[in-house]
Every structure is written in C-alpha cells, then in structure tokens.
Fold each of these.
Amino acid sequence: MRKYAEMTREERQTEYAAVKAAYESQRAKGLKLNMARGKPGKEQLKLVMEMGTILQTEEDYIDDGLDSRNYGTVDGMPAARRLFADILGCRPEQCFVGGNASLQLMFDTISKAYVNGLLHSEKPWSKLEKVKWICPVPGYDRHFKVTENFGFEMISVPMTATGPDMDMVEELIRDPAVKGMWNVPKYSNPTGIVYSDETIQRLASMKPAAPDFMLIWDNAYCIHEFACEFQPFGDILSLCEKYGNADMIYEYASTSKITFPGAGVSVMATSEANLAYLNPLINIRIISYDKINQMRHVKFLRDKENTLALMKRHAAILNPKFQAVLNALDREIAPLEIASYNRPVGGYFVSLDAMPGTARRTLQLCREAGVTMTGAGATFPYGKDPQDSNIRIAPSLPPVEELEQAIAVFCNCLKLSALEKLGL
Ligand SMILES: Cc1ncc(COP(=O)(O)O)c(C=O)c1O
C-alpha cells in the first residue's frame, strides 16, 4: 500500500474508485451499527445480573444500624463509603456516596458553587462577571456541556502524552477568574492517556489565584484496565493535602462501567471540610439517594480486591473488541499515513486524529452507510474542533462481528475523505 500523499492524482483517482465501490456495497447492506458511546455490551451486563436478587433478608438492608430502606444519611451508607474509600485509596469520611451517576454529582457541585459559592468562595459564581474553566482537549463531551451550561468561558489546553500541558495550566491559574479544571487522570476520555506522576504532582501543588479553584478529578476509569494488569494509582486527596490544597480537590467515580450504567452508584471524594459545607446544601435538593442500590453494590462488589476480579472479567470481553478496532486501523489506515491513533490499555475509547479537515466528512459518510459514531467536534469545548480532525471510537457496545463490519466501513470513510481532501 502506498501513502496517499505520495500518490499521483491519477493513482488517487483509481484508488478512490476502488474504495468507493467497496463503500457502496457496504452501504447497500442497510447496516445499523453503533460506535458512538462508551456503553458496556450485553455480555458485560450479564456478569452482574446477580445484583438484582442479592438483597434477600432484612439484615441485608441494614448497615451500622442504618436502614437503607428509609430516608436518611444524605452522604450514603457507611459500608458504601468504605467500599469507595477502599477503591480510591482515601478515607471513608472523605467519601460522599450519591445516586446513579457521577456526572450528576459533578454538575451539582458546580451548581452549588454557582448558586451558593464553595467553602472558600468570596461570593457565588453567579455574581461574578466571568468564570473561566480549563478544558484539556480532546476531552469528554459531557464535561464540556456542563461548563458550557453554566456560561463559563472554556479554555482549551492540549493533552500531551503525560497529561495536560502543565506549563499552560500553571500560566492560566494566575488569573483569578479561572475557577476550575476538568481532569480524567487515568485512561482519559477519549485519549486513553494516563497522567504521569510529574503531572499529578504539579496539579496537586498548584497555587491558583482563585481561592475556590476546583480541581475536578474524574476518576471514571480508575480500575478499568482491559489489556494489562491493574495499575495502582495514588490517593490524590492526600497528595493535595500535603501541598496545603485539601479543599481544592473534588474526585469522582462511579460503578457505571463496573455494574450497570445508569443504575450504578457514584461517589464524590473530597476534604471533610468541603463535605461539612456541602452536605446541608445537597440536602436541600434531596433527602437521601437510593441507599438500597448502594447496599446491593456493597454486597455484590464487597471490596477493592473482589471488584478488581470482576474488572478482569469485563476486560476479557472488552479486549478483543479494542483489538479488532486496532487491527483494522493498523492494517487499513496506518500504511496510508492519513490518521494517527492511540493504543489504549484501559478506559472505553480509541481516539483517532484524521487528516485535518476530514473528521466531519468521514463521519457523514459513516452515517450514510448506517454506522453511528460520536459527532465530529464533540471532544472539544462548544463542539468545535479547530482542526476538524479528532474522532472518538467507542468499541464496547457491538458484538465483535458487528464491530468488525462497522470499523471496515469507518476505514473506507476515512480513506474516501482523505482522498477527497488531497484532490481528485
Ligand atoms: C470521563 C467520564 N466521566 C463520567 C462518565 C459518566 O459517568 P456516570 O455514569 O457515573 O455519570 C463517563 C461516561 O462515559 C466518562 O467517560
């Protein structure tokens, strides 16, 4: 296979005709395939079906004398707080166990900052002229939607192989209007990047001008290895505390990719001082979360070790799917030098950078052939990828056979859009 950029116009035209014919025959099949969102597949959901019936006796609902069947304890069942503390490596007193989505906890914490202010705020953020927010890119579209929703000005910072560009971050935090930063420190969405120790240390020791700066640490994929052994991670709460930043850090995680997405349990881990301040504010909106579901999770997951064993079973299902995607890209795309992509060992995504100016067109072609992908630009604030290049591939949902079909279509779409861009 020849690199497209080295082909003559005539060679490109011949190649285009061949790829177009293959694409048209794929299109004629009337496919309906989806690689859009990081959803576990059916086989993964089957791994945790026991959860539905795990609470059997009355005692199963009770923990430390607290009855999960009734109102009370907005910050969660003690056993659930212990479980998440075990997984995250912090203390149970630092864990607020909430409802079925960590995104909701993130949104809510920011909404408290907006309406009431945080522990160290001079005033609620809604009373400020401008709030700015640091967004490593490419990043998680739903994070960006949250900060866009509050009208914050989002500032993109490029991701490097070791995490966000820290020189830029350290410069930006000198502005008191910069109030926070999104982070997915392990198997970042979508790049799969794991922040290096140095990056983590620089973040934990920052001295932002804003006294109420929020370092959001979305540890959504903290135990989600699929192609390697579990990689231990340090406790960000104690690291921040060490640098006098105990109240700056807000860590989040959930069981969305461990048990049932949308029916799991979420956690916010932060300083006890922050929790003492936030609990009564959260309590205005809700009396208590679904503690029965918390107890189901405690009984089923038990502890970190047992949860890691479950993650290995998820990995056995996920890994072949990721390898199917990577094999197709290695075979069909890499030799043409029309895209670069990461090789994640954990998380839920493959991030691909197509030739600048071709992402939107590639995804349009996919759509027309019945393959749904995350929209172009979604991985950037305001949905605008300045290069029109980044594409997020989510291989987890379809069975391998369907995935192979979908990725074959995707490869042809990448080729067609690259050839069109290079000129026919
Ligand atoms: C980085 C990240 N955070 C949070 C979530 C959503 O988690 P939850 O279901 O707990 O809201 C996702 C889901 O894809 C994610 O990728």
Amino acid sequence: MKKLLLAFVLFASAVFAGETVPKNIILFIGDGMGLSQVSAGKIAKGKLEMERCPVTGLVSTWSSSSLVTDSAAAATALATGSKTGNGTLGLSPDGQRLKNVFEYAKEKKKSTGVAVVCSLTHATPVGFIVHATGRKLDAEIAEQIAASDVDVLFGGGRDVFQSRLSELRKKMPVALTTEEFRKLGAPGKAAALLYPVHPPLAAEREVSLKELTQKAIEILSQNTNGFFLMVEGSQIDWVAHKNDGTNTVSEVIDFDNAIGAGLDFAAKNGETLVIITADHETGGFAVLDGSVENKTVNKTGFVCGAHTATLVPLFAFGPGSGVFGGVHDNTDVGKAMIRFIQASEQ
Ligand SMILES: [Zn+2]
C-alpha cells in the first residue's frame, strides 16, 4: 500500500511539478469574455471577485478549422483537451469521439454539473455533455442531455425538453419555475429549466447565475469523491455580438458574482480548484471612456459583431492552480484538468 501511495505521489509530482491534486474542479467560462470585457466589469464594480485568484494566464483559442473559433470547438477544446473544427461538439476533426472532463470525472465516481444562463442546448454546456457533428437540432441535443449521467442541469430550454420531462424526472427532481427551484433542497441530482428557451438579460433574471452556482455546489459537494462543475456566463457573448457596451458590463458583473460564490466555497473547502477563462473574445471590444472614481463606463467600441482570435484571460485559485500561469493553448487547460481528474484519489 505504501509503495502504491509512493508511486501515486511520484506520478502526481512528475505530472504537476509539486502541485496538489484537487478533489473538485469548478470551471467558469465567460462566453466571449476578453480582457476588455473584464476591464469594463472592473471599472464598473471596483474590485472583481476574479481578482481573488493568485494565478493569471492567457489562453489562445483558435480551432482546428479556423483562426477564429466558435463556441462549439472552443468548448470541446476546454472539455476534452483536443482541437476540433468549428461547429463540432466532442468529436475530433475526423469524427472520433473525444472523452470529456465529465466522462473522466464519472470514472472517478465524481458528480458533474452545468449551470448556465442560456438554453442547456447551447454550444458551451453541450460541449461538456454531447458528441455531435455539425449543427444538430436542439431536440437531438436535448435527447442526448436527458440520456446523460450529468447530475446538475441548471439553465433554460424548458420547451425543447418538454417531451423529455418524464424521462428526466425518473432520474432527478426538475424545477420549472423560480419557486420550484428555491424549494429543491439538496437532492443528489437536480435539473432546473427556468425559461422556455434562453433567460433574459442579467437585470431581468429572477434567479442570478450566482444563485444557480450556489445551489449547484450545494448539491454536487455532497459527493465525497468530489465533483466537476462548469458555470457559464453565457450572454457576455450575445451582447457583444450586438455591440451593446452597457449590457456587456452587467453580464460580466453577473458572471463575476457567480465566481464569488465558487471562490467562497473553494476558500472554505480547501480541495477545490477554480478556473475562470473564456471560450473566445467577442466583438473586438474596447473601453474608450469612463471613470474609476464614479465606477462608470461611458464610451465603448467594437471592431466587429463576431468572435475574434485575441488571447483570452485565465484566473486560477486553489490546489493545482499553479499550472495555469503563463500563456497556454485552450487544449492545455483541458489536458491539465483531465490529468488532475485522473490523478485524483477516489
Ligand atoms: Zn462562445
């Protein structure tokens, strides 16, 4: 037994250069969140929760088919550690199935979950659950999600899951309203489909991403083997596509509040790695005028209404965070998370 333990320690230290292997991983993805989006949030909020992270890095996001990635290829890179082409989810460019962090976590008997402010059938959450080529119909994706073994499914998309509700309810309680969500308690698994399709903008969301994150952590942390949670600030990207600087600020702050909940848990728990990054930047966004004193962003600009190839920021906190400092490719982030899950004790 001692030999086995020594072998494990040697293996772990060889792979991670002295980094402690975390039991839990919470990955926060700000969809479309480049450095200027973070800067706008900081100017308006003063101090961001993500600034509590001692480790920062930069991440390249290009896909195997394009310098400018889409959310599907980027989610696949983060979830599987492998590049794929735009529009592809959980498959290699030649169609091979790529094992993702949720599947590695399940092999270690960990719980898994997603908490997002878009339909659950949108590209980023789907990239952690589904294997599909091209633009699949929402209904096909919903079918794969409902058939999956993911323990927490929080987001929108009630309409597309309508025909899957009885199937889902056999596995877990399913909240369809804010009231039902707040009465969930802490079952071992749970779904919340709080909107017919996508949630509205941050100011109009009854349940904030922070509240979804707190409930997801409460549920998932009951598993003594640990958990992997992916939380997405989904609409930072959407408002940037519309070149809407005002709502860029509110979406980044909503996302940052959720990050605070993750960091609060990680700080108390001590065995949780928190990683905050983006799948790509959107809009070529820039802050052009405002005031740090008054916490205002008065003038912003966008160079386009699409994604860009600029490097995105990364912040990390907790055991294992040291490996994320510096400049990495998005596949390196996925590979490091997979190595941590594989090296974690059951
Ligand atoms: Zn995206």
